[in-house]
Design brief:
Oligomer: single chain
Family: Belongs to the PGAP3 family.
Radius of gyration: 23 Å
Keywords: Golgi apparatus, GPI-anchor biosynthesis, Membrane, Signal, Transmembrane, Transmembrane helix
Number of helices: 9
InterPro entries: Per1-like
Number of strands: 0
GO molecular function: hydrolase activity, acting on ester bonds
Strand content: under 5%
Structural class: mainly alpha
Subcellular location: Endomembrane system; Golgi apparatus membrane
Largest sheet: none
Length: about 200
């Protein structure tokens, strides 16, 4: 028999705790972003400037577009993106040859691209997490009657989570301003819905 819903005791305390965590996170946030070590390197900047000058305008750009695979153009990979990728690995090779640690570029560690996947392992992991959420959602709907007190709240939470894993997969496939914001925003909705679910339960 389904368990009756229990009103959240100490809900204000939970909300206060969440607010305190957000304030602490904001206080601990770093100052203005100055870029990462890799993309501040003169060798990276010179490489990027030369690559863009050579390949991203006029005849060079036409040649780039003629040899770019269709799946790359359809997923929004531009000439500048390709230059950034090639120059990143050039800089990494120089760092490794000189015995230095691999640097970050634009706030991220360098990843080897696979087809149009910018971070293939992370994209695949996010896809598997979303798939696991979907499987458990179908099992939940098959075994729990809709009349259960928490049924609709749990279904909503499952869809919020599925949406977050979808955008996580998209973000790790192709990192842009829009996909980054959608990934972070949707991950935040999961956290907020988890707090709500905790209180309701």
């Amino acid at each position: 028999q389904p368990e009756a819903a229990v009103p959240c005791s100490g809900g204000g305390m939970t909300a206060n705790g969440a607010a305190l965590l957000l304030l602490l996170g904001a206080a601990a946030a770093p100052g203005p972003v100055r870029g990462s070590q890799g993309d501040r390197e003169p060798v990276y900047r010179d490489c990027l400037a030369q690559c863009e000058r050579r390949n991203c305008s006029g005849a060079g750009l036409r040649h780039f577009r003629s040899r770019q695979p269709l799946y790359m153009s359809l997923t929004g990979w531009t000439c500048r993106d390709d230059c950034k990728y090639e120059c990143m690995w050039l800089t990494v090779r120089l760092y490794v040859q000189e015995g230095y640690r691999v640097p970050q570029f634009h706030g991220k560690w360098p990843f080897s691209r696979f087809l149009f996947f910018q971070e293939p392992a992370s994209a695949f992991a996010s896809f598997l997490n979303g798939l696991a959420n979907f499987v458990m959602l179908t099992r939940y709907k098959a075994s729990v009657p809709p009349s259960s007190p928490m049924y609709h709240t749990c279904i909503a939470f499952a869809w919020v989570s599925l949406n977050a894993w979808f955008w996580s997969t998209v973000f790790h496939t192709r990192d842009t301003d829009v996909t980054e914001k959608m990934d972070y925003f949707c991950a935040s909705t999961v956290i907020l819905h988890s707090i709500y679910l905790c209180c309701v339960r």
